[in-house]
What we know:
Elements: E1 14-15, H1 18-30, E2 33-39, E3 46-52, E4 54-55, E5 61-66, H2 70-77, E6 80-85, E7 99-109, H3 116-126, E8 139-152, E9 158-162, H4 163-166
Parallel strand pairs: 1-9
Antiparallel strand pairs: 2-3, 2-6, 4-5, 5-8, 6-7, 7-8, 8-9
Amino acid sequence: MSATSAPQRPDPVSAADDAARAQARALLAGANHAALAWTDPETLTPGISRIGFGLTPEGVPLTLISALAPHVAALRAHPDCAVMLGEVGARGDALTHPRLMLRARAEFIAASDPNRPALRAEWLKGHPKAALYIDFADFSFVRLHPVSALLNAGFARAFYLNAADLL
């Protein structure tokens, strides 16, 4: 080792195992809202929004967003994004509760897409109050295709996941 190089530290994040995959899938299936990170197309600075969250019938993450939201223009310009899922429990330190950071690529679904009625029906199962606005012209479904993820399963338990681990 040279005088200028730092000692290598082992990676504290493990490869996914069956338990990590199951926990990540449970976080995805159990979420009805999430935090979405996106890149502002004008300033290239990060932004974050709370979104409704669900899954397509095939298990792909999904959101329904209004064209009035700033993250619509952001995702159209820069579809790479991240989603944070997980709830803080009633007790203990917030950082000890499981959470999943999903790296994804956004795909807007056209109003004329033949799959939209099935997505609409699935969305309303988990978000019944969305019936008030789901058919407004400014609302679009957006698939959030997983690229990779990081599961923090609690204190000293973190796992890398790939897209196949999540679907």
